Amino acid sequence: MDNIIGTAETTSYGSVAQVADFWALLKPGVMYLVVFTGFSGLMIAPGTIHPFLGCVALLCIAIASGGAGAINMWYDRDIDAIMTRTKKRPIPAGRMAPDVALSFGVILSIFSVMLMGLAVNWTAAILLALANGFYVFVYTMFLKRRTPQNIVIGGAAGAFPPMVGWAAVTGTVSIESIVLFLIIFMWTPPHFWALALYKDGDYAAAKIPMLPVVAGRKNTKWQMLVYTLILLPLVLAPVYFGVAGMLYGGVALAASLYFLYLNICVLRSEEDKVAKKMFFFSILYLFLLFAMLIIDRAPGIMNLIGG
Questions:
Q1: pLDDT at 303 over 80
Q2: Do 19 and 163 lie in a common domain?
Q3: Would I find Iron among this entry's keywords (predicted)?
Q4: Phi and psi at residue 81, in whole multiples of 5°?
Q5: CA 175: distance to chain centroid?
Q6: Secondary structure of the chain: what % helix, strand, coil (to 5)?
Q7: Distance of CA 217 to the CA centre of its chain
């Protein structure tokens, strides 16, 4: 906290925050993926939901994600000022006062959970609150600066959205929605450690104990491979549980094998560009998995492809 106080005292917040700065606080890149995986859970869940309520549920997921992102930027403003990847964010750049960002994040977080509960159902609202609280309190405030397992445990926060979408339709948590949770949970370590491999200098400067900084690059690469191997059967589990069919299964298997191939390339190479390639493909990979879940369950899709 000393670093945070020091940063707040030395940074000038003379300019008025613009709309673009509030938008940046929401971490839109993360929010898009969160909303999309939540939408996938909503679309493939058994049962029906009124289209308007479905849109409300997705809006709540987006707002909650943005609120958590704003609180994260408030808390991490000291290390954000050090890292080249984050130093242009609104608070470290001096375009927004920390208390404004905090208030914005708290209001969005509370509003999203209450709206989800009152308009959709309280099971989905509780899951949304858990996701938000896990990201803010468990990952951001407790794990991130204390343990190299921050991403492993903290990854649970980003794995909740498909469960929230599922619960918005069914009002329940089922084994199928837990499988969707586990896919994202196991995907998160190789995804973020790929980023950490080519940004390890930033993390070291900010004294964040990311695995490459603490355990070394080779150890990180082996752990990435382990999680990727565990992920492979998990991505096929929706077929086993009847959530998806062979169309999804075929695409998921092919994409997962390529993801594994990239992981092996990272293991064998010391070049940052290989880790960067794996990181960017990992985003496409997750998007592809959940897009295929939707397509595979879309009415009439099998007729269109001759099934």
A1: no
A2: yes
A3: no
A4: -70, -20
A5: 21
A6: 75, 0, 25
A7: 23
Q: What is the mean pLDDT of residues 196-217?
A: 89
Q: Which domain holds residue 109?
A: 15-171
Q: What does the pLDDT average to over 168-178? A: 95
Residue 99 and residue 269: Cα distance in Å, rounded? 44
Domain membership flag for residue 7:
no
154 and 25 fall within a common domain: yes
Q: Please give the model's pTM, rounded to 2 decimal places.
A: 0.89
Residue 169's alpha-carbon distances to 48, 55, 122, in angstroms, are: 6, 12, 12
- Which residue is associated with the tokens 């998990």? 234
Domain assignment present for 303: no
> Which residues make Cβ contacts (< 8 Å) with residue 5, sequence separation at least 6?
none
pLDDT tens digit string along 285-298?
Answer: 999 999 999 998 76
Query: What is the domain count for the chain?
Result: 2
Long-range contacts, 88-91 (Cβ 8 Å, 24+): 89/24, 90/17, 90/21, 90/22, 90/24, 90/25, 91/11
Highest mean pLDDT among 91-100, 145-154, 201-210: 91-100
